[in-house]
Amino acid sequence: MRTLSGVQSSGKLHIGNYYGAIRQFVQLQDESEAYYFIANLHALTTVRDPKLALELTREAAVAYLALGVDPKKAVLFRQSDVREVLELYWILGTVVPHSNLERAHSYKEKVAKGISPDFGLFAYPVLMAADILLYSADAVPVGKDQIQHVEFARDWAVKFNTEYVPGYDPADPDGKERGHTPGILKLPSARIQESTQTVPGVDGKKMSKSYGNTIELFADEKEIKKRIMSIKTDSTPVDAPKPVPDGKPADSSVASEVPLYDLLKLLLPESEFKDVDASWRAGGKGYGDYKKKLLEAYHATFGPARQRHAELVNDPAELERILKDGADRARAEATRLMDKIRRAVGIP
């Protein structure tokens, strides 16, 4: 099985990125043939400073490696290093219905907020579909809010195959029945990690760069402490039992009613959290004590990765070697598929 996923290099990575995606990627590289890319072309929809774009791309790659992605097991590369993705982007776009793009979640959200979207945002799902289809991925690890992108990739792969592959039957996409021809573009499946909760930010909303509520993975120690100590709490007295989350609020942008409690549960080993939970419910400790406990848990969890991160930052030549090797391996796969696609559509 081949899995594929990417991270957009539009900001510093935070613990929500780790628990929501990267931790799973590290596990999957031992279970499948894994392709992971830094989506620096996608990032151009928001990052317009070229120096910052380069910095964030390198930072994302370093973060992947520091957190456990092994370039000997997985193919790690920059999206822009495989130019075939742009060729597939255009060819695929010729069969994409305009109405599909109009109902894309990201586009609709921007329009609803009164933002005038540009072409990059409007056509964003097509490039994402090209990313998925170019490497013939079987599974794409995504959060529930990203399922639509995989569904689009499947739908558009079917449209392309139907248009350009004689004998293709959408009911038999792999051509297993006699007389049917397998499609050129493989239909991927979304892989949902049901057990992964939405990680709350310091304000209780879903941790997100766009909300400015993140706890970064590789910020300096002073900044990490400042962010953790700023986690939103209520005015419950020190001696009183602290409130425990009783369910997700109606506002889907809110990840936690009690973010400090949920972050402790996320970062602490189960045995340690049981003790914290008992004292939380009994009262007698203030929120400041629990924030210090969370800070300790953060460094215990990410300390080794932060050390590895510092080593990689100081060896840019090795980072570039890893990314070039990944791009060469990814391009070998992309070239094979694009040769078939060019023949199918009549491009020499």
TrEMBL record:
<dbReference type="InterPro" id="IPR002306">
    <property type="entry name" value="Trp-tRNA-ligase"/>
</dbReference>
<feature type="short sequence motif" description="'HIGH' region">
    <location>
        <begin position="9"/>
        <end position="17"/>
    </location>
</feature>
<dbReference type="InterPro" id="IPR014729">
    <property type="entry name" value="Rossmann-like_a/b/a_fold"/>
</dbReference>
<dbReference type="Pfam" id="PF00579">
    <property type="entry name" value="tRNA-synt_1b"/>
</dbReference>
<keyword id="KW-0648">Protein biosynthesis</keyword>
<keyword id="KW-0030">Aminoacyl-tRNA synthetase</keyword>
<dbReference type="InterPro" id="IPR024109">
    <property type="entry name" value="Trp-tRNA-ligase_bac-type"/>
</dbReference>
<feature type="binding site">
    <location>
        <position position="199"/>
    </location>
    <ligand>
        <name>ATP</name>
    </ligand>
</feature>
<keyword id="KW-0547">Nucleotide-binding</keyword>
<feature type="binding site">
    <location>
        <position position="131"/>
    </location>
    <ligand>
        <name>L-tryptophan</name>
    </ligand>
</feature>
<protein>
    <recommendedName>
        <fullName>Tryptophan--tRNA ligase</fullName>
        <ecNumber>6.1.1.2</ecNumber>
    </recommendedName>
</protein>
<feature type="binding site">
    <location>
        <begin position="143"/>
        <end position="145"/>
    </location>
    <ligand>
        <name>ATP</name>
    </ligand>
</feature>
<keyword id="KW-0436">Ligase</keyword>
<comment type="similarity">
    <text>Belongs to the class-I aminoacyl-tRNA synthetase family.</text>
</comment>
<dbReference type="InterPro" id="IPR002305">
    <property type="entry name" value="aa-tRNA-synth_Ic"/>
</dbReference>
<feature type="binding site">
    <location>
        <begin position="16"/>
        <end position="17"/>
    </location>
    <ligand>
        <name>ATP</name>
    </ligand>
</feature>
<feature type="binding site">
    <location>
        <begin position="8"/>
        <end position="10"/>
    </location>
    <ligand>
        <name>ATP</name>
    </ligand>
</feature>
<comment type="subunit">
    <text>Homodimer.</text>
</comment>
<dbReference type="InterPro" id="IPR050203">
    <property type="entry name" value="Trp-tRNA_synthetase"/>
</dbReference>
<keyword id="KW-0067">ATP-binding</keyword>
<feature type="region of interest" description="Disordered">
    <location>
        <begin position="234"/>
        <end position="253"/>
    </location>
</feature>
<keyword id="KW-0963">Cytoplasm</keyword>
<feature type="short sequence motif" description="'KMSKS' region">
    <location>
        <begin position="206"/>
        <end position="210"/>
    </location>
</feature>
<dbReference type="GO" id="GO:0004830">
    <property type="term" value="F:tryptophan-tRNA ligase activity"/>
</dbReference>
<feature type="binding site">
    <location>
        <begin position="206"/>
        <end position="210"/>
    </location>
    <ligand>
        <name>ATP</name>
    </ligand>
</feature>
<comment type="function">
    <text>Catalyzes the attachment of tryptophan to tRNA(Trp).</text>
</comment>
